[in-house]
Amino acid sequence: MKQLNIKWITVIVLMMAVFSSCKKDIDIAPIENNTSNTFYSNEIEIKQAIIGVYAHLARNGTNTDFATDYFWLASENRSDLLYIAAETSAQNDQLDFRKFLITANSGTVSTNYARLYQIIKDANSLLFYTTEGQYKRYRAEACFLRAYAYSELARSFGPTALITKPIENAEAIALPRAPLSDIYAQIITDLQYAAANLDKVYTGADAGRVGSLAANALLGQVYITMGGYPLNDATAYAKAETVLTSIIADVNARFSPTYAGLFTLANENKYDLFSIQFASGGLNLGSSLAGYATSTGSSGTPFPEWMYTSYTLQGQDMRVDSDLVKTMRTNKDLRFSVSIDTGYWNGLPSVPTRTFVKKNIITKFLEKDNTNTSIKAWNDQPRNFPILRDADAILLLAEALVRNGKASDAKQYVDKIRTRAGLPILAAAPTLDDIKLERKYEFIGEGRRYFDLVRYGETEAVNTLVAFNTHYHSKLNGQAPTKRDLLMPIPQNELKTRSNWSQNFGY
Amino acid sequence: MIFSEQPTEKVDGYPRHLKLNLISTYLIKFMRISMLAGLIFCTSAQLILAATVKAQKLNEVSVVFGLKDESLYSALKKIENNSPFHFIFTKDEINEVRSLNLSQKKRSVDEILSVILDKSQFSYSQIDKSILIIKMKALNTAGLGIRETVMITGDVMGSDNQPIPGVTVKEKNTNNATATDVNGHFVLKASDANGTLVFSFLGYLEKEVPLGGKTTVKVTMLEAATKLNEVVVVGYGTQKRTNITGAVSRITEKEIEERPITRVEQALQGQIAGVSVRSNSGTPGADLTVNVRGAASVSGNTTPLYVVDGVPLDNLSGLNPSDIASIDVLKDASSSAIYGARGSNGVVLVTTKRGKTGATVISLSAYTALASAERKVDVLTPDEWIDFSKKWLDYSWTLNTGQSGSISQADRIAYATSKTGKTYTTRTDLLGIRAAYGIYDPYWGTSAIEPIDWQDVMFRKAPVNDVQLNASGANDMVNYSISGGVYNQDGIIVGSAYKRYSFRANIEAKLSQRVKIGLNLSPSIGTITGTSVEGNNNGIARMLSLPGWVLAGTGKEAGAQPTKWYDGWGPGPNVVSPYILATANDRINKDTRINSAFNTNVNIIKGLDINGLVGWNYRGNSQRTYSPTWAQPTWDAATPGQLSSATKTTLASNSVLVQGTATYSKEIGKHAINALFGASEETYSEETTSQGETGFPNDKTYIFDLSRGTTINTNTIYGTSNAIISYFGRVQYSYNNKYLFAASLRSDGSSKFGPNNRWGLFPSLSAGWILSEEPMFKKVNWLGTTKLRLSWGQNGNDRIVSSQFLSSMAALNYATGTSQTSTSGFYVGNIGYSKLRWEKTDSYNLGLDIGLLKDRISLSADVYYKNTTDLLLNAPVSLTTGFTNQYDNVGSVVNKGLEIQLNTVNVVDNKFKWNTSMNISFNRNTITSLTNGNADIKLGQGNTIIQRVGYPINSYYLLQATGVLRASDFTTNSGGALVANIPIFTGQKPGDTKYLDANNDGKIDANDYVVAGNFQPKFDFGITNTFTYRHWDLSVLLQGRVGGDLLSTGSRSWNRATNDTRFNYMASWLKDAYWSESDPGNGKVPAFFSAVTSQYDTNWMYSAAYLRIKNINLGYNLPKITKVFKTMRLYASCDNVWLFDSYYPGYSPEGATQDNLSGDWGSYPLARTFSLGLNVTF
To answer: Taking the complete model, does pTM exceed 0.80, yes or no?
Structure first.
């Protein structure tokens, strides 16, 4: 037995020795060794991190960008500017938006909500992993982007969770829907921080990144939004006037002399204040917006005179309100031809049988150049999408002045915009209706209209949309817009993870 | 050990009641097991060696011998000392025989024994060099010396004509008994020439043979249904079936060989209770889904751990079924806990073939088969599609104009002209008013279009061929088995095929009495060709959802250059036929695998063995695709090559196992102990690359370089690795071969978890009680071998992707600067969740094995309860975190069930035999808790898959359809608008699907979604009937399930009201749908023009119950022709003979392509295969 014991012990000891020496073998870090706690260690990485936050606004690793999912599908698409000419069974979400049938399960609702919180998450991480006082510009940009994301969440989804640091799920699902006032307070703080710590604008290699001008312009837009439905904060218009007045000289300096000049590749980042940046070349940096905006249905034919490569169209056959087309043409509004085409040839001039297809479609973001071989796909369009540009600041200031009883001061601003559009200046001081109308024409295709209608108030928004819907869509299997459509539903993907939130009204 | 070369010393200790015939049974049994097990039972190995030397017969050995008033004991001693023989007896018994006298004389041993034992209570029997002295109990002394004795000689063989040694031969109603020798031969002194002999042997059916005056008999014994004498493979070793205390099921090469199968998993389908095998796709070379005792994980990976010859393997696809000797499935935790970390979904142990001692055996097996689709799906025929389109256009006409649907086309056009002032002459003109005025296609009824049946185009009769060659043999020094095989299968859908070359060499060499080394080497290459036909917008979805019309002359290649698809009223022009999708696009997926294991076994001292194993599995996968421009829908708008795209992805993985084990076995009296201790380290590393480019200079080839293509789609290199370190041990103890105990413990450390949660400890305990060995049960005649088993154990699961406990940055670039160049960006890619830990399963098993009617009926029943906690899932998280999912331990799930395996020998005859093997499994899977306060987890297409407490994993979450809304469900209000009287979904009209208002709030909305069903059956079953008549054999396998549902997400394309008649639909949309109040259909199919169609409801959930005649196999065994071959079996076989089910919008109720394999989206049909095959050994 003694001999046996020794043998056993030898065996066990040997094995223990062999294997305990290998215990470190199970300490395996990812081969791509960029763990977030070791990132943010120097300026190069912090720059990469802030670029990553901006990038969520672009394609974000998917087929569609924020401009398409948010400003087109969830905004312009259901406004009183566009109607569906013919339905296809694809792109059901787009139909559901147009027909006011969206539910908490609609994918696009969830996509927009998730994307805004992605921006917040990565801005939070950057702010969390850097210390106050260091890397000021990047921190200011992060604050701007976080504020921007919250401003869109607030006007599209109402109160949501207010998160300002990296957070794990267990903590997140315990958070309540913070009151809108709290969210706006955070937005204002962030924007003021950004405005204080950024140069006015950045150019050259940094073009496309925000400066204090953008931060103040957004702050102005936020105040104007606060002044309208649903917060109706009467004090906000004065604040908007103050902040917008403070930047108006700088904005005027960036005023494009022509409307067409705003939508030209050569002038990108010249006149705007904050744009989503796009580039073609098949690097997943291109825009998907034109593919949706010019769509005649997903099985439609492309535009041979405008597009070099095969250009498949996405989404539904959306056309511009014919009354609006009529008015703009009658007025000889210079913005018309820049924004809208009334049709296209279905073949090159060399094709003798080609016919002209008549459709009023938005071509504002379409790079019409059939020699441009760097555009590789329908979602590889190069044109930037302006979230804030010259006319935003100018018309927002004009509106603030009118609302603050200083309509006569507002006249110069409205006239400035009208003059550029080739329209006569106003005969009298602008009314609120003049400004509303001007915004409608100025920003067609840019996704401002729906949010404008909402802040104009429940009655105005619902009545306008119902009238439009009755005119164009009475035979569709949709439903009439109601108060519930002034917000999107909280996505089911969010509600299913928690039990402490109630759904938005009517969903 | 019980027996040794010195029987006097060893046998002395045994109690009188131990029957000698039982001793002999055990002896022989041990010998047989030893031949298989080889190394553990060292002493019995000597018996094997003895067996190989031909023993002299009793009448051939003579000794000079005499006795003077001596005892039998000393007589036997004397013979032992003077002859090569040893005696086996019970000393107490033979001590009764004394005062023997015999004159000193040279006699044969046979003669001496017959004289001295004559008229005693003892008889004798030779087994090799041993002579059994058997006491004949309760002898009727009255008959002693009066009855005439008859010498009966005979031979006992098995059904394979091989002799069976150790069979107890007994004269009925007497105590005359003996046992057969190694040649199956016996000699028995019977008291009655007209008596009856009873032959019995463990594992065989008892047989009675009336003598009828004959003195020589030839007996064939048939194996009993129970296989209690077999040796099964357990974790890190083998064990006798009788000693198993857990739940282990096995199938052997016999079940695998006799039927033509492609994949090892197919052999398990319908054969083992508790093991469900699902052919979720009929794609050639596709994986099957194997579940052992239900799904114990929500992560989607519920496959059991596969271990081939001791080395874990992720996938069995490279394994040739013909190389397999046995498959053992460890179902409960006590058997699988020794595999700790990864055993929670069961363990499947595959053992490949070894050589058998004797001359080299060369075997050839081959079959050729023809496969065809099991059935077609009942979509609208070309003519029905036109009728359907017309019906919808009539509806549109009536809806828009208020006029009768019987108004003619000419009148409709005239009416349109009157309304719009335009004239409509061309087809294009008419297309513009198609929907508004219900205009028919002018092509209909003309030769401009031609009909086509896409299912006929896509399906074909496909040949399958398989050839396998194997050579094996063994001697004292070397044991080898070498094989090679070629398998070649064309898929039943055009363009798809699978080809496999596989080789295997298993070689074991004995370096000395104590050291053995072995090498298993198995390279294989499998090639799958053909593009994916499953899933959204792929071949099958298209062949069901495209109408059966193409423009005249375009045929099955419609849409590809130089043709266009039927446009306007059809889905064209930019559509390409499914035939082109399946044939013009290239896809070649090659899997090269090398599985190897190097084994060293050292016998340190008697009973103690040390085993070292190094296993290496290599997998090289390469997949390339090429899609030419001419096959693109927009070929006309492109130059050649412009739309062509090519991709190539490669994966190389290496998994290395280093393992050491020590085993020790010892028997002390009635105590037998077996211990195992081991440690192992397994490392896995994987590297993948991917390249893709679109836009080629021409349309000739898939080869590209960066300078010639126009767009680089992908160009990436990735890598990952993980490791697991394990220590394990097991002790098995049995007392008196009646009470069995086992305990095991394993500790695993996995790199997939954070430093604090890395190690898991997995214990198990089990016990068994062989009831039939108890004296009180021994008296029960009808009761055969009966055993009670009880076990408990814990298992783990770590099968998630690596490094999830860390938060990693992911790349996302953005265009900045005046030049709009790509600028490098990074964002936080996943939540680092440091608390991530093992998924753990606690499992309990109670099993009962019963043999009845002399083991003609054997029943094995197990009840089990498995509780899995800390379920690992990439679970949805609040979007406010900035993420959608995070790996987390999200809850627990219980699987409980009952399994019954019943084997019966219905008819036994020398010529005709009928066996039935039946199994049935009940499993109930229930989620018992989830994190976030038991909040539901929803996933899949449209969030239709739900994990909810109280329901099975992957339940379906749908609106409950209750019929079709009728006009009577609505009233018209003063404004002329329809108002519903019952709850409806906003916007619904008559003809829409009627939904159940589950929450009774008076409206239908997202809150009315209910857990409507799940895939889990009430039970599933398999029945095999085997008939043998002379040289013929026939087996029929039925397999199926009762209960359960299948969500056919894909059928929403061809079985849903889309209001778009340009596509094709199930025939029911013409025949059974609601069209109007006067044509309301069958009340189940809603109107094709329904208003609300985007919801997911139970209309797409179908019964998944089915019964398949899975296989019928008829074989003929040719009589032996020694000079030509040893055995030859010819067979004809049919797989998937017939399917009884009610799943109509797809091909198979087993189909599953997505959403945790819960949803079907046009899965590849199973093939009905007729094959002719041949198995020969030389």
So the answer is: no
